[in-house]
Every structure is written in structure tokens, then in C-alpha cells.
Design a protein that fits this description.
The protein is built from two helices and twelve strands. By secondary structure, the chain is mainly beta. It has a five-stranded mixed sheet with strand order 3-5-7-10-11, with no helix packed on it. The longest helix is centred in the N-terminal third of the chain and has 6 residues. It is elongated. The model has no long low-confidence stretch (mean pLDDT 90).
């Protein structure tokens, strides 16, 4: 590695080509196209990270751990899934889609109810048709239903 010298008066007229770019000792791994999408954008790191989508497939009864993305329910029998409440502030505005890939009456149970609705609104039951699903948005420590297809909540 060659010697480097810090310079405050460095002027690049046309272009700069480097093998590795680090800012404050952190390697930049984004492509030029990804960086250009942000050109002129006024967003916080939290808003950018909302695009970090997760994909989870449940093949048996258990916990849905994805908080921003999609969870696919894929078992020949019924899945009784649990969904932990999101963290207020940290998870606000994250979106989760839960879809059934099998013709089963799956259930999703959330503590405190959807939208803080209590025990009368804490279980979402799928109708037993492939494609059943529910759309959720996290806000202030609870999951709010923003859409559903053949799912009842009680």
C-alpha cells in the first residue's frame, strides 16, 4: 500500500476511481446506482432502513419473527403462529404481510390485540383458502391492520 497524505485542498476535476471507498473508516458497499437514487433525498437513516425487507417462511407452528417484509405460512396442516408486538419508535411504520400458501385455517395471535384492541381482537383466523392474507403496519408498539383477504379477527 502506498503512502497517503491528508489534504484539505484536494480538488477532483473529472472523476475519481478507487478500489475501496471508506467514509469515517466504514466501507461503502452501495453501487453508484444505489447512491444516485438518494441524490437530493432528505431522509433519515430510519426511513432508509424501512426498505430492509425480510422474508420468513413458517412450515410449522411458531413465532413470526419478521417485522418488515413478508411471512409465508406453508404447512399441509394448520399453523398457529404468534406475532410479538413491534417496538415503539424503533419499528414504527414497518409493514408486514402474512400470506397462506396452503388451504388451511391458520391463526396468528398477537399480545394485546391488533391495534391495542384487547383480547377480542388478538387472533386473526385465515379462511382456509390459498392466498388468504393480512397486511399490518407497526406503530407505537402495536400492529395495525391495513388490509386483509379472507381473514377474520376476533
Amino acid at each position: 500500500m502506498g503512502k497517503t497524505k491528508a489534504r484539505e485542498d484536494l480538488l477532483i476535476v473529472d472523476e475519481l476511481q478507487v478500489d475501496v471507498l471508506k467514509i469515517d473508516s466504514v466501507e461503502v458497499t452501495a453501487s453508484a446506482a444505489e447512491l444516485n437514487k438518494l441524490d437530493g433525498a432528505t431522509v433519515t437513516p430510519e426511513e432508509i432502513n424501512l426498505n430492509d425487507m425480510e422474508v420468513q417462511t413458517l412450515t410449522d407452528t411458531g413465532a413470526i419473527t419478521a417485522k418488515n417484509g413478508i411471512c409465508l405460512l406453508n404447512k399441509a396442516g394448520v399453523i398457529a403462529a404468534t406475532l410479538a408486538n413491534p417496538t415503539a419508535g424503533t419499528d414504527d411504520f414497518k409493514r408486514l404481510s402474512i400470506r397462506s400458501l396452503t388451504a388451511q385455517a391458520h391463526t396468528v395471535t398477537v399480545t394485546g390485540g391488533f391495534g391495542n384492541g384487547g383480547s377480542g381482537e388478538d387472533v386473526a383466523t385465515f379462511s382456509g383458502v390459498i392466498g388468504d392474507g393480512i397486511e399490518l403496519m407497526a406503530y407505537n408498539g402495536y400492529w395495525y391492520i391495513t388490509g386483509a383477504h379472507q381473514v377474520t379477527v376476533a
